[in-house]
Amino acid sequence: MVNIYLFIELLGSADAPATVDTLKALSLDKCKFANVVMLSDEKLVAQLDCKDSTDGDKAILNNIAKVDGVVQTNIIAVVRPRKG
Q1: pTM (2 decimals)?
Q2: How many CA atoms lie within 13 A of 39 on its CB side?
């Protein structure tokens, strides 16, 4: 399991709340959004939880990057949670 933290920039003309809803509703094969938060009308942050980092790559490139209004997606951190 990996937690991928994303910084997502939107077009100025994008509807940020609608984009948040679209992202949360995406069907991602082996990943799911733990949270998507709007920082401003043009900036979102998100936590994407995936079984493996390669699943995260696929989700970002094949699904998230193609959402209308998304201009840029930056990976802030990839964390492998530890037990104990």
Answers
A1: 0.92
A2: 10
